[in-house]
Amino acid sequence: MSYLDWDDRMAIGHEVIDAQHRQLVTLINGIAEATARRGGRQEIGALIRAFSDYAQEHFSTEQDLMDSTDYPEYFLQLSSHEDCTTSALSFYRDYINGLDVSVEDFLSFVAGWFKGHTLGVDQTLRKYLKKKASPDPLLR
Length: 140
Ligand SMILES: [Fe+2]
Ligand SMILES: [Fe+2]
What we know:
By secondary structure, the chain is mainly alpha-helical. It has one domain: Up-down Bundle (Four Helix Bundle (Hemerythrin (Met), subunit A)), CATH 1.20.120. The protein has 5 helices and no strands. Helix 1 runs antiparallel to helix 4. The longest helix is centred in the middle third of the chain and has 28 residues. It is elongated. The chain binds fe (ii) ion (2 copies). One fe (ii) ion binds next to helix 3.
């Protein structure tokens, strides 16, 4: 059983973005798996860093897509992406510095953030891209 199950509603109908969303789920599950078998701080730290780096790569792909399609809620997305990156990097720093921080709490935050974001604002982007791809001929 995985920590976070993939749900098709987490997709937005864009090949690259959807592959990245799936990979983020895999990375979150990797942190959970290493935590469950009590992996060392170095191993788990590296997995958290890998998640954080990949999330930044994904956000930048998504933001480029929004930019190139004149997405009206760009800044709403940007600030939510920044919340995730800031929290992940700050947790990573505390964790590798040996502070008494809980990976379970971090996982719960990050899985909750991911679900809320992909099922929420990313779906608004999905609808926008769909409309943009097949504009109603009656709309001017
Ligand atoms: Fe996304
Ligand atoms: Fe997003």
